[in-house]
C-alpha cells in the first residue's frame, strides 16, 4: 500500500470515530455553548493563523513579501488585543451550566492569552538581513508606547531593521534633493531679479528710441530736400543752354577783340 | 590756421569784441570762432586757466549769436576745466549756467545731464551742493515726465547722504524714488526703493521709523505683493525678536543682494547696536497690553 492510500484510510477512520475525539467534541460544544467559548475559539484560530504567518515570514526570501506578512501578523495581534477586554468581561459573567472550576479555568485562559499573543513573532526579532552597520535599529527596534489597551497603534509602527534602513535612505535622499532644489531656487531668483532690471531698463529706453526715430526722420527729410535743391542748381548751372550762350558770347568777344586790333 | 599762439588769437578776438572809435559794432561771429580756436589751443597746451577763460568767452559769443546750444556746450567744457582746476564755485556756476542755456533750447534732458555732471564732480568736495544739484536735476526731469532717467540721480544722491551719515534724508530720498517709480509703473524699482528705505532706517537703529515706513509702504499694492515685502517683514520680525542670526541670514538673501551696492553694504553691517533693546521693548509693550486688559 502506498503512503497516500494509508493517509486516506486514516482519514476515513478518523471521520468515522469522530465522536470519540475529545478535542473536536469540545470545539463543537464550544460553538453551541456560549459567547465566551465562541469568542475564545475565534481568538485561538486567529492566534494559530498569526503563528503560521510568522513562520512563513522566517522562510520568505522576498523582502517585500516578508514585510507584508509581518504587517499582517501585527494587525492580527492588534485585533486580538483589542478584543481581549471583551473576552475578559464574558469570562467574568456567570453563565449557567458552567461549573466553578470551569469559570476559573476560563479566567486563567483569558489571562494567559495576552502573553500568547505577544509571544507571536511579528518579524521584529527575526531579521532576514543581519546588517551590522546599522546600529540604530537596536535602540529604536520596538517603538512601543505603553501597550495598554488604548495604545494599540504602536504595534503597527514597530520598527524592523529593514524598515529603519529604508527610512534612513529615504531621509538622506530627500535631504539631497532639498539641497539641490535650494540651489536651483537661488539661481532662479537671481535670474528673476536680473530679468526684472533688464525689463525696466528697456522700458526706460523705449521713449528714447522713439525720439531718435522722429529726429532721424526729420533729418532724412531735410537731407532729401537739400539734395533735390542741389541737383536742381547744378543742372541749371551745367545746362547746355548756358553752355551755348557762353560759347557765343566768347566768339563775340573774340570778334570784337580782333576787330579792335585789326 | 592759428594753432601757433592761442594768446594772440585771444587778443585778436578781444579786439574784435571791444567797442571803440574805430569799431562801432562787435563782430561776434569771427570773435567766437577765434575764441574757440584759442580755447582748443590752450587745452592742448594744458593751460587750463586760460582755456577756461577762452571757453567762457566763446560761450558768451555764441549767446550773442543766439545759439544757446553752442553756448551751453562751451559752458560745459569750461566747467570741466574748472573741475580740473578744483575751482568748485566756478564749477557750480558754469554747470548751472549751461543747464539754463539748455533749458532755453527746450532740451531738459541735457540740462539735467549737465547738473548731474556738476554734482558728480562735487561729490567729494562739496557734498551738500552736490545734493542740491542732484535734486534740481531730478526736478527738471520730473517736470518733463521723464522720471525713469531720474532713478540714477536719486540713487547717487542717496549714496551721498549715506556717506554723510544723514540717514533720514537718505530714506526720504529713497521714498521719493519710490514715488517716481510709481508714476512710471516701474514696480521692481519701486519695491527695491522701499526695501532700501527700511534698511536705511534699521541701520540708523530706528526701529519705530522703520516699522512706520513699512506700514506706510504696505498700503501700496505693488509693494504688498512683492518679494521685497516678504524680505522686509522677515527683517522686521527678526529685529523685534532680537534674533541676530536671523537678521544676518536675511541680509545675505538674494533679494537684498539685488539692491544698490551702498544699501547692500549697510545691510551686511546690520544689526547696528543692541537688538535685545528692541526685544525688551516689544515684550514690555505686550505686558502693558495685558495689564490694560486686566484693568478693563
Question: Can you lay out the helices and strands and say which pair or pack?
Answer:
The complex is a heterodimer of chains A (262) and B (296).
Chain A: H1 3-16, H2 22-33, H3 35-59, H4 63-92, H5 100-119, H6 136-139, H7 153-156, H8 161-237, H9 240-261
Chain B: H1 6-17, H2 28-44, H3 48-64, H4 68-84, H5 88-104, H6 108-122, H7 127-143, H8 147-163, H9 167-183, H10 187-203, H11 207-218, H12 221-224, H13 227-241, H14 244-252, H15 254-257, H16 261-269, H17 275-295
Organism (chain A): Durio zibethinus
Pfam family, one (chain A): SNARE
Subunit structure (chain A): Part of the t-SNARE complex.
Q: Give me the number of helical elements of chain B.
A: 17
Give the total of beta strands of chain A: 0
Tell me the greatest interface.
Answer: A-B, 11 and 11 residues
* Strand/helix succession of chain A: HHHHHHHHH
Give the oligomeric state of the chains in this entry, treating copies of one chain as homo and distinct chains as hetero.
Answer: heterodimer
Question: Percent helix among the residues of chain B?
Answer: over 70%
**Run of helices and strands of chain B:** HHHHHHHHHHHHHHHHH
How many extended strands of chain B? 0
Class by SSE composition of chain A? mainly alpha
* Cα-based radius of gyration of chain B, to the nearest Å: 27 Å
- SSE-based structural type of chain B: mainly alpha
Radius of gyration of chain A: 54 Å
Q: Number of helix segments of chain A?
A: 9
Amino acid at each position: 500500500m502506498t503512503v497516500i492510500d494509508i493517509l486516506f484510510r486514516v482519514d476515513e477512520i478518523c471521520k468515522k470515530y469522530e465522536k470519540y475525539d475529545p478535542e473536536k467534541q469540545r470545539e463543537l460544544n464550544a460553538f453551541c455553548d456560549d459567547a465566551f467559548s465562541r469568542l475564545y475559539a475565534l481568538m485561538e484560530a486567529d492566534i494559530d493563523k498569526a503563528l503560521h504567518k510568522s513562520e512563513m515570514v522566517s522562510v520568505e526570501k522576498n523582502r517585500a513579501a516578508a514585510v507584508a506578512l509581518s504587517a499582517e501578523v501585527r494587525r492580527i495581534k492588534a485585533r486580538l488585543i483589542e478584543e481581549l477586554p471583551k473576552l475578559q468581561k464574558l469570562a467574568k459573567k456567570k453563565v449557567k451550566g458552567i461549573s466553578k472550576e470551569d469559570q476559573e479555568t476560563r479566567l486563567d485562559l483569558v489571562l494567559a492569552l495576552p502573553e500568547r499573543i505577544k509571544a507571536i513573532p511579528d518579524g521584529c526579532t527575526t531579521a532576514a538581513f543581519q546588517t551590522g552597520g546599522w546600529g540604530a535599529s537596536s535602540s529604536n527596534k520596538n517603538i512601543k508606547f505603553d501597550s495598554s489597551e488604548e495604545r494599540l497603534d504602536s504595534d503597527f509602527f514597530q520598527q524592523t531593521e529593514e524598515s529603519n534602513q529604508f527610512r534612513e535612505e529615504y531621509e538622506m535622499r530627500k535631504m539631497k534633493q532639498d539641497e539641490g532644489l535650494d540651489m536651483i531656487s537661488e539661481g532662479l531668483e537671481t535670474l528673476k531679479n536680473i530679468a526684472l532690471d533688464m525689463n525696466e531698463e528697456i522700458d526706460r529706453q523705449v521713449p528714447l528710441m522713439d525720439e531718435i526715430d522722429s529726429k532721424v526722420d526729420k533729418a532724412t527729410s531735410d537731407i532729401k530736400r537739400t539734395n533735390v535743391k542741389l541737383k536742381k542748381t547744378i543742372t541749371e548751372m551745367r545746362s547746355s543752354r548756358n553752355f551755348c550762350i557762353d560759347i557765343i558770347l566768347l566768339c563775340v568777344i573774340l570778334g570784337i577783340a580782333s576787330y579792335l586790333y585789326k | 590756421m592759428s594753432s601757433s599762439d592761442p594768446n594772440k588769437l585771444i587778443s585778436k578776438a578781444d579786439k574784435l569784441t571791444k567797442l571803440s572809435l574805430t569799431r562801432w559794432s562787435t563782430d561776434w561771429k569771427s570773435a567766437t570762432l577765434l575764441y574757440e580756436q584759442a580755447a582748443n589751443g590752450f587745452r592742448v597746451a594744458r593751460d587750463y586757466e586760460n582755456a577756461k577763460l577762452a571757453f567762457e568767452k566763446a560761450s558768451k559769443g555764441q549767446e550773442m549769436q543766439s545759439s544757446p546750444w553752442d553756448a551751453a556746450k562751451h559752458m560745459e567744457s569750461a566747467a570741466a576745466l574748472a573741475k580740473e582746476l578744483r575751482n568748485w564755485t566756478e564749477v557750480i556756476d558754469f554747470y548751472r549756467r549751461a543747464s539754463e542755456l539748455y533749458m532755453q533750447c527746450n532740451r531738459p534732458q541735457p540740462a539735467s545731464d549737465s547738473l548731474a555732471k556738476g554734482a558728480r564732480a562735487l561729490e567729494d568736495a562739496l557734498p551738500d551742493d552736490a545734493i542740491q544739484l542732484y535734486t534740481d536735476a531730478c526736478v527738471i526731469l520730473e517736470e518733463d515726465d521723464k522720471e525713469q532717467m531720474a532713478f540714477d540721480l536719486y540713487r547717487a544722491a542717496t549714496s551721498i547722504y549715506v556717506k554723510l551719515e544723514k540717514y533720514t534724508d537718505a530714506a526720504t530720498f529713497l521714498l521719493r524714488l519710490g514715488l517716481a517709480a510709481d508714476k512710471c509703473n516701474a514696480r521692481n524699482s519701486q519695491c527695491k526703493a522701499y526695501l532700501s528705505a527700511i534698511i536705511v532706517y534699521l541701520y540708523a537703529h530706528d526701529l519705530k521709523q522703520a516699522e512706520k515706513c513699512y506700514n506706510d509702504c504696505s498700503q501700496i499694492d505693488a509693494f504688498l505683493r512683492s518679494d521685497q515685502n516678504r524680505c522686509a517683514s522677515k527683517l522686521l520680525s527678526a529685529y523685534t525678536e532680537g534674533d541676530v542670526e536671523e537678521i544676518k541670514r536675511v541680509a545675505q538673501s538674494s533679494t537684498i543682494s539685488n539692491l544698490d551696492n551702498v544699501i547692500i553694504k549697510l545691510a551686511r553691517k546690520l544689526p547696528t547696536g543692541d537688538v535685545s533693546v528692541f526685544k525688551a521693548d516689544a515684550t514690555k509693550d505686550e505686558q502693558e497690553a495685558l495689564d490694560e486688559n486686566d484693568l478693563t
